[in-house]
Amino acid sequence: MQIREIWPFLLPGVLLQLLMQILFIVEGVREDNRKPLHRTLYILSVAVFGLAAIAFHLFRAEKYTPKDTTANEVERANHLSIKGIFFILLIAYQVMGLHMLAENAGTAAYKPLLWLLTISFLIMLLYNLLPEKKRLIAEPLLPVLQLILCIPIQCLDISGDNLFLSIIAGFSAINHASLPRAKVYGIGALGAYLWGSSARTVFLSQSAEMSDLVRYFFVNTIVVLLALLAFYTLKKQMITSVKLESALRTVNEQSEKLKSLAVVEERNRIAAEMHDTVGHTLTAAVLTLEAAEGLVSEPQAVQKLRQGKEQVRRGLSELRASVKVVRAGNKTDFAAALNQLLQEIRSDTGLVIQTVMESEINLPLLHVGILLSVIKECATNAIKHGHATGAEILIGEHNGLLRFAFTDNGFGTDTIKSGSGLSIMRERIQSLGGTLDIESAPGEGFTISLIIPTAQRKEDTE
């Protein structure tokens, strides 16, 4: 047997291997997500070992995560594994085909076998390399045709290698098929082997012992049956694994949604309790202090009552702001919350505050709540102590730090006394890992500047 005699059988496989090597080497060169050493080893392995190396890399490649359990999604998820199996079957078919031709060289069946093997090999290539839509049109014609060709190959072959070629043809038909069709193709591959093997057994019955032929027939039949069952089980396991992965992903997504709903429900419950219990208690305390203020005649006592009343009102105001933030949850928009707060301040006090925000800023809930409280405290101090009629807020973010400045047009002073409001404000900013500075001069109003990190610290989330 010479190469020029078997070139019809060799040429398609050699051309396909060269084409696949070129494609995968080019893909390896273009890939940027591999380390240089890994990329070099990948290219060398494909160049030296060809389809075997390509199949190995396909099996190791990251699999596509299916969106659902439909047939198309399952096919996409197993696409790389199916392609790898095809390349392995391709190598096995050519090796066994060459061995069969070598064993049958010089016999009358040699030429028919050569062309039958070539046609069967081309059908196998065509079926596996066709695009998905065109392959669906060609199915089941091509797999069935390849299985039918196994019958005359088994009748003509004298080497016994037709057993393995029948198994490979069955694997090829099952590999790309859906699970119901895979079962039909498996039965068809076994039936084709039984037909061909039976015909071969009858033909040899005249020159060989019948007991040896029967033993040979049954042993080979069991081997083919077990091989087809094993590959069908592998196919079923691959599909089941993809479906389980998709189901697990769906369960995890639903679990996250349920967790989010539980968090929202708990947040609303806490907000309701804060509003109904603490809020009502503080409101009652304000009314009580106002009533007590009218009953006391001593100026110092009246001043203390007024101071206590203002503190309770401030706490009530901060509580209401906190309730809004808690109810808003992760959907809090700092810019929208700021605009709403400034409108409330203007309608309640007449203080006009202009805002300059350099860019859209995303802040954690804790930061939003504290910043809104700072703005309210600044506005209160500007009206109460500086008799301001307007103010300006500058907000910017750079390198993970938020810079905030509140400047009013009040009287200003050269002696800054930190009352309870400013002290609480400073403590809150420091709790975020930030800093707060206060500047003032007579006739120039107050400027309160702070810097805080835009990311929430780990200890704040625990």
Question: How would you explain this protein's 3D organization?
Answer:
This protein has 462 residues and is α+β, with helices and mostly antiparallel strands. The chain is 73% helix and 8% strand. It is built from 16 helices and five strands. It has helices spanning 3-30, 36-49, 51-60, 71-77, 79-104, 110-129, 132-138, 141-156, 162-175, 179-204, 210-295, 299-328, 334-349, 365-384, 420-431, 458-461; strands at residues 352-357, 390-398, 401-408, 435-440, 446-453. A hairpin with a 2-residue loop joins strand 2 (390-398) and strand 3. Helix 9 runs parallel beside helix 11. The longest helix is centred in the middle third of the chain and has 86 residues, at 210-295. The two termini are 77 Å apart.
Shape: elongated
Domains, number = 2
Instruction: Give, in order, the helices and strands.
Output: HHHHHHHHHHHHHEHEEHEEH
Cα radius of gyration in angstroms: 41 Å
Please describe the topology of this protein.
Layout: H1 3-30, H2 36-49, H3 51-60, H4 71-77, H5 79-104, H6 110-129, H7 132-138, H8 141-156, H9 162-175, H10 179-204, H11 210-295, H12 299-328, H13 334-349, E1 352-357, H14 365-384, E2 390-398, E3 401-408, H15 420-431, E4 435-440, E5 446-453, H16 458-461
Parallel strand pairs: 1-2
Antiparallel strand pairs: 2-3, 3-5, 4-5
Helix pairs in contact: 1-2, 1-5, 1-6, 2-3, 3-5, 5-6, 5-9, 6-8, 8-9, 8-10, 9-10, 9-11, 10-11, 11-12, 12-14, 13-14, 14-15
Q: What is the structure about, briefly put?
A:
It contains 16 helices and 5 strands.
